Amino acid sequence: MKKITLMFVLFFLVVTTLFAKNYERILTERSSIQAALSINPDILECVQNLEYAKQRAREAFSLYFPVVGVNLNLSRFNNTKPILISGENSQKLIYLPEGKKDLYYSTQLSIWQSVYTGGIIRATNKLSHVNLNKVKAEENIINSRVINNIKLIFNECLYHRALIDFYSAQSKISNNTILKNKQNLEVLRYNQEILNLLNAIGLDLNTIVLIAGDFIPKMKEIDLGKCLLLAYEFKSEFKATQEQQNLDSLILNLLSMQKYPNILLGAAQEWVGDKIVGDDTNWYCTVNVNMPIFDGGSIFARIKQGKIKYRESIIKRAKLENDIKLEIMQTFLEYSFFKDQVINAKLLEKNGKYNESDIELIRNLNKSYYNLELAIGVELDSY
């Protein structure tokens, strides 16, 4: 019994080792998509853009908080009269009294808080969040395109593999040279599509993979009205253009707010002398009001530019809606055509025993199905 068990284990290890040498990864359509979402360069770039937009939103939110600063100056001097000094890296003027001091410290703690900015801070925060939503919509667009590209390429891999199997079976029966040549050509095209798939996922092009999946027709009962409804609900292009329109509107409001005054409250405590916190102390509280009066008309020019960009975004949104409707209608007609062809050919009753024309029909049907998914912006298997 032990010998039989040991022989079985050895046989299993040998078979596993030999089988593992043939490929490094098993790729299904779903696993290919999951891998691409983790390593595809376009998607990784979108992740960085999204993180950048999040940091911009955090930066905008910080405008609500006061600005607290500490300034420390250490000087050694010999003055016959008091002087003021300033440095390139410091916006604060340092006062040095007359006389000779071995060491002279000037320490200041200050706090500034914006009280009124004409709504600029609030608009800036809203602008950053709208930009964040726009970047998220753009990320979804890239994700949809990458996923759709992988589905199309994977469908091509299954198509060429099905033809290889068909020609192989036929050549064994008839030993036809033409069929063998067709089989070799399909092997070439299959290997080319494997490279396209690896590149679309983001894997090394030298990776040896095994394509796993059934080449079956994608049949879905769906009408044009539901396709349009799903597109308005899930199509990321709609959301991106809507956020762009909101973005342009907020920029226009932000430009208009430059005409309003800014009010700042400030307070500071200062210690001077031969110690970091000396005996001589000063403090002040201040209100700073800045009112723009005339800048040569540049504010009005910028407001006009904002109005032009806002109207442009409205026109682009209307054009995009028509383009998406056209794409959905065209792809829906194409899918409906090939679906009727599959039904008339009774491919569902053949249980995988397809001829050359059947395989070509399934390829076109699945391709139109994936194009319809891309046009709608959602995976139809979920609806």
Structure description:
This protein has helices at 2-22, 29-39, 41-61, 120-174, 177-201, 224-234, 236-256, 298-345, 356-376, and strands spanning 25-27, 67-79, 83-85, 94-96, 99-116, 209-211, 262-273, 280-290. With 383 residues, the protein is α+β, with helices and mostly antiparallel strands. The chain starts with a helix and ends in a 7-residue tail after the last helix.
State the gist of this model.
The protein is built from nine helices and eight strands.
State the main characteristics:
two-stranded parallel ribbon, single chain, 383 residues, four-stranded antiparallel sheet, 17% strand, elongated, 9 helices, alpha+beta, disordered N terminus
Give the distance, in angstroms, between the N- and C-terminal Cα atoms: 54 Å
Residues in helices, as a percent range: 55-70%
Mean pLDDT, all residues: 86
Number of strands: 8
Unreliable parts: 1-21
Largest sheet: 4 strands, antiparallel
**What string gives the helices and strands in order?**
HEHHEEEEHHEHHEEHH
User: Given the helix and strand composition, which structural class is it?
Assistant: alpha+beta
Q: Strand percentage, roughly? A: 15-25%
Radius of gyration: 35 Å
Rough outline: elongated
Distinct helical segment count: 9
Q: Which strand order do you get reading across the main beta sheet? A: 2-5-7-8
